[in-house]
Specification:
Helix content: 25-40%
Shape: elongated
Largest sheet: 6 strands, antiparallel
Radius of gyration: 19 Å
């Protein structure tokens, strides 16, 4: 870890200018070279050839899970390393790699003894989720959540009303490939491990469950919603006749019914400061 490219998102949870400046001060303290910086989405993400031309060996990502996912997707074929710093609401990927350490502590530890590890991901076509994939009517709450983050009160009310109607009025989503999932569900949360997919199906049929599910979305903690059915599968697919909204690490994508959803493993591209990430 010698030459860096720094990617941030000013709209993420805690990536203020002061905090970005503090991180760059740690770069200088450790004698690291900052070859470039990208504020996403205002500016396009760098390409692998651009990083190689600048002699970059490590991309430092200080952003939320969605921005991190976009960068990892854009640089999927690049051979360098990624250092993930907690800069969003939940920071699940950063916690998996570094525990609860703060950005400065992670940088010091990674420079001294960071090691490259592989991570599992959920894959559907060209899309990947390193944190998790969400399917079902409850994905409509993503627009209300984004309005909350941007402080747009009027849009929050409107988006929450639409999300409530879809979550309450819809029959739910059916999933093939997991024997334990025989019903329709308001949300299906999928994560990957080394043995396949861990699938948690949320059944919110009464108004109390729906209110709880909506609150979890608005506060950003969508993983906290109570899962009433949990199972493991090698491969699953959404059923029906229309495309369904899916959230890959919080980023919306439309998937055709029957799309194969599987688990995979990345290369050893992620710097970890834990003994067993």
């Amino acid at each position: 870890m010698k030459t860096l490219w720094f990617i941030t998102n000013p709209g993420s949870g805690s990536t203020t200018k002061a905090k970005c400046d503090a991180i760059e001060a740690v770069f200088a303290e450790r004698g690291l070279v900052l070859a470039g910086r990208t504020e996403f989405p205002e500016r396009p993400l760098p390409e692998g050839a651009e990083l190689d031309a600048a002699g970059v060996d490590t991309v430092v990502l200080f952003a939320g899970d969605g921005t991190i996912n976009a960068a990892l997707s854009a640089l999927g074929g690049w051979s360098g390393a990624f250092l993930i710093l907690p800069g969003g609401t939940m920071n699940l990927l950063a916690k998996a790699l570094h525990g609860n350490a703060d950005p400065a502590a992670i940088l010091h530890a990674a420079h001294e003894a960071g090691r490259r590890v592989a991570l599992p991901f959920v894959e559907a076509g060209e899309h990947r989720a390193f944190v998790g994939l969400i399917l079902g009517p409850a994905t409509a709450w993503v627009r209300a959540r984004e309005a909350v983050r941007k402080g747009k009160v009027g849009r929050v009310v409107q988006a929450a009303r639409v999300a409530w109607q879809r979550t309450f009025g819809s029959k739910g989503i059916r999933i093939a490939g997991a024997r334990a999932l025989r019903d329709r569900y308001q949300a299906v949360y999928v994560t990957a491990d080394r043995d396949g997919l861990d699938v948690a199906a949320i059944d919110a049929r009464d108004w109390r469950s729906i209110a709880r599910l909506g609150w979890d979305w608005l506060t950003g903690d969508w993983v906290a919603a109570q899962a009433v059915t949990q199972t493991h599968a090698d491969e699953i697919s959404p059923q029906g006749t229309r495309p369904v909204l899916a959230l890959f690490d919080g980023e919306p994508v439309m998937l055709d019914p029957g799309t194969r959803i599987r688990g995979g493993m990345s290369g050893k591209s992620f710097l970890s400061t834990l003994e067993d990430p």
